[in-house]
Design a protein that fits this description.
The complex is a heterodimer of chains A (about 575) and B (about 80). With about 575 residues, chain A is of the alpha/beta class. Chain A has 16 helices and 22 strands. In chain A, strand 21 and strand 22 form a beta hairpin. Chain B has about 80 residues and is mainly alpha-helical. The chains are: A alpha/beta (about 575), B mainly alpha (about 80).
């Protein structure tokens, strides 16, 4: 297979909000920027973000970045790095006004100021009354953001490589990153994109779970590439789940259903939430409801042939209420669960939504790893932002509408840092002689595999293993078996075979390559979760129900070599203000 | 150009709802489409995710009435 080569100042993998915000900063500074994306940029998963972008503008109720910072630290269950959180919350207003200036059509108040709506976890005065902090464009904030950023990038001459997939990172002997090997999905051609700065903005990887709200493209490609190049992954045990996703497909059924009076049933027709949360019942917080569902399934009270889901009943609300107030939910239930909730309950399971962990970075988007002399050495030439990165502003649990803020603040910050770094390093480093080897070896292996494993089958087993053993509520025996099982899946993934060897738009090949990345994400998640013997944020264990700050107020680092774990301290010291010391997280 | 393969990849979207509906459509109907319907499907695939989903979920009508036959298939699958 031939490999061509092209040179850029910066190469960005991923064209969601994070990648495009960084690209804009670089292109507007006159740098030559390539952005690779598996799908057309405005079809990135950012499009599914509905809620808004958090910023303490104070347009509706009094607000303050310091209160936002407090909420984010508390929401993270104190695992978030307080310097990065201060940095993000302080810049929030500025980046939102900048988006407005770029032409993002925010909803308005009568006064003409940007409209804001309240969201869970947002408070005034350090845990006081509800704050109103999320700036939105109806229920299409992510969509509007992507379109705005794409237009600006086109004007700024960012060069998009649409329908291209990053295959492997190129590192030289000194460990510096000099670009990426990538696959043109349309032609099957492999190209080396040489760059002085390589930035990953490849999004999340919740496709490792059977039930996931993530689009199919969210296969953790950046994490797979990073891990294969010897970069660790941080805090991969922390995954945010929603309690009610449609059984079998994972699509989100919003809390609005339970808000309107819908409730959950087990196979005996019992309204089981009464046992877990006698007062709040079905309206208890997400993690409580998710854990209750898991317990019911584990204890054999799940529904269906495999006793692996619960039922969400709402027919008692009556056809008129359902049609008037929950038309979108009814449409989703009919299309994806093949039930009309006016007559029958919707089969549901907890569904994976957001990956808090990722490629470790500092607050300038530089990837940091303990690979030379220090524990947080900058990997020269390598940057990561957005869901694929772990800055860490979300810690053990992300607050709603902080993800769009994360991608914009750190997309811009990484852009600025790259501009500065490139001023210091005006020349490209030479590509190592073996630059294409890693990617080509993977492709050759796949093309030549005989009597191999079926990609869909192995992927399915991977997802089932993660869902059963490393889901929303975790048990020690299940985690232990889970590590063995996922290692077995990883072994099989090394022998996948594709029947269609053609080059043009070969979806089967792409899916096999994606599976390599899913495997890395799954291994890191399972092994990190098995080791963390406490419950914190989204990581909830049956055998260790409490947070343990003495032993576990630290970040996990997973290394693929030897599947080894290491730890590093949480950065409890903010940039300018006093630290928020850990205390019990009560709402 | 492998049209079917190209269309199959373009059914990869930012919204999971669309991923699933479009994948079902590819499996059930794509090879049975005539030339005119193939063109309609291409036009629909070029729409932004939210607009396409709103049409499939009956929250919005297509402005171009010629898209109705394929849209009908997407709605009923």
């Amino acid at each position: 297979m031939t490999t061509s080569k092209r040179k850029f100042d910066a190469v960005i993998v991923g064209a969601g909000g994070a990648g495009m915000r960084a690209a804009l900063q670089l292109s507007e500074a006159g740098l030559k920027v390539a952005v690779l994306s598996k799908v057309f940029p405005t079809r990135s998963h950012t499009v599914s973000a509905q809620g808004g972008i958090a910023a303490a503008l104070g347009n509706v109720t009094e607000d303050n970045w310091h209160w936002h910072m407090y909420d984010t630290v508390k929401g993270s269950d104190y695992l978030g790095d307080q310097d990065a959180i201060e940095f993000m919350c302080r810049q929030a207003s500025e980046v939102v006004y900048e988006l407005e200036h770029f032409g993002m059509p925010f909803d308005r108040l009568e006064s003409g100021k940007i409209y804001q709506r309240p969201f869970g976890g947002q408070s005034q005065n350090f845990g006081g009354a509800q704050a109103t902090r999320s700036c939105a464009v109806a229920d299409r904030t992510g969509h509007a953001m992507l379109h705005t950023l794409y237009q600006r990038n086109v004007q700024a001459n960012t060069q998009f490589f649409v329908e291209w997939m990053g295959l492997d990172l190129i590192r030289d002997e000194e460990g510096d990153v000099c670009g990426v090997a990538a696959l043109d999905i349309e032609t099957g051609e492999v190209m080396l994109l040489q760059a002085r700065a390589t930035l990953f903005a490849t999004g999340g990887g919740a496709r490792i779970f059977s039930a996931s709200t993530n689009a199919l493209i969210n296969t953790g490609d950046g994490l797979g590439m990073a891990v294969r190049a010897g970069i660790p992954l941080q805090d991969m045990e922390f995954w945010q789940f929603h309690p009610t996703g449609v059984y079998g497909v994972g699509i989100l059924i919003s809390e609005a259903v339970r808000g309107e009076g819908g409730y959950l049933l087990n196979k005996n027709g019992e309204r089981f939430m009464e046992r877990y949360a006698p007062h709040a019942k079905d309206l208890a917080s997400r993690d409580v409801v998710s854990r209750a569902l898991t317990m019911e399934i584990k204890e054999g009270r799940g529904c269906g042939r495999d006793a692996d889901h619960l039922l969400l009943k709402l027919d008692h609300l009556g056809a008129d209420v359902i049609k008037a107030r929950l038309p979108g939910i009814r449409e989703i239930a009919m299309k994806f669960a093949h039930t009309d909730p006016i007559r029958d309950p919707i089969p549901v399971v907890p569904t994976a939504h957001y990956m808090m962990g990722g490629i470790p970075t500092n607050l300038y988007g530089q990837v940091v790893a303990p690979y030379k002399t220090g524990p947080e050495e900058v990997v020269q030439g390598f940057y990561a932002v957005g869901e694929c990165a772990c800055v860490s502003v979300h810690g053990a649990n992300r607050l709603g509408t902080n993800s769009l803020l994360d991608i914009i603040v750190f997309g811009r910050a990484a852009g600025n840092q790259i501009i500065e770094d490139l001023n210091r390093h005006p020349h490209h480093k030479q590509l190592p002689a073996d630059a294409a080897d890693k990617a080509l070896t993977r492709l050759d292996r796949l093309n030549n595999q005989k009597d191999g494993e079926n990609v869909a089958q192995v992927s399915d087993d991977l997802r089932k293993t993660m869902q059963a053993h490393c889901g929303v509520f975790r048990f020690p025996d299940m985690l232990r078996q889970g590590v063995e099982k996922i290692e077995e899946v990883a072994k099989r993934a090394g022998h996948t075979e594709i029947r269609d060897k053609s080059r043009v738009f070969n979806t089967a090949r792409v899916e096999a390559l994606e599976l390599d990345n899913l495997v890395e994400v799954a291994l890191a998640s399972m092994i990190s979760a098995e080791a963390r013997t406490e419950s914190r944020g989204a990581h909830a264990r049956d055998d260790f129900p409490n947070r343990d700050d003495d032993k576990w107020l630290k970040h996990t680092l997973y290394f693929s070599a030897g599947r080894r774990l290491d730890y590093k301290p949480v950065r409890l010291k903010p940039l300018t203000v006093d630290s928020f010391p850990p205390k019990a997280r009560v709402y | 150009m492998r049209k079917l393969e190209r269309a199959r990849w373009r059914c990869r979207r930012g919204l999971l709802e669309l991923d699933i509906v479009l994948q079902r459509f590819m499996d059930a109907y794509y090879v049975k489409l005539d030339e005119a319907e193939l063109r309609q499907f291409e036009i629909l695939l070029d729409l932004p995710d939210n607009d396409l989903w709103d049409m499939i979920a009956l929250k919005k009508e297509a402005e171009d009435m010629r898209l109705q036959p394929v849209l009908h298939l997407l709605r009923t699958i």
